[in-house]
Specification:
5 helices; transmembrane helix; about 110 residues; mainly alpha; single chain; transport
Length: about 110
């Protein structure tokens, strides 16, 4: 299931990139490249509205997909890790407490 979310997120990102690159901040963008076609069928203002709404919808879709995909990450049990050499040695033989070190006597001054 996580794989499907990944594909959908990547697809939405590519479409969002296309929508952003097609837009022109000064209003030229897609509406200016089609010339008369944009005015006759959809109108210049309609084209920019569709691109802007599409940008917002795709950005929201990416956010929703990212947040919902976290619910499908398996929360399975942690695999038991093998014991380290120190743990194995400690478990097989009792550990002898070390004797406390006594400080060495200070050298005498002549």
């Amino acid at each position: 299931m996580l794989f499907i979310f990944g594909i959908l997120i990547i697809l939405a990102c590519v479409l969002l990139g296309f929508f952003v690159l097609v837009q022109n901040p000064k209003g030229g963008g897609l509406s200016g490249s089609f010339g008369g076609f944009g005015n006759q069928v959809m109108g210049v203002r309609q084209t920019t509205d569709v691109l802007e709404k599409g940008t917002w919808v795709l950005a929201a879709l990416i956010a929703v997909l990212c947040l919902t995909s976290t619910f499908f990450i398996s929360k399975g049990t942690v695999a038991k890790q093998p014991k380290t050499i120190m743990e194995q040695a400690a478990g097989s033989a009792p550990v002898q407490p070390s004797t406390p070190m006594t400080p060495a006597p200070a050298p005498k001054k002549p």
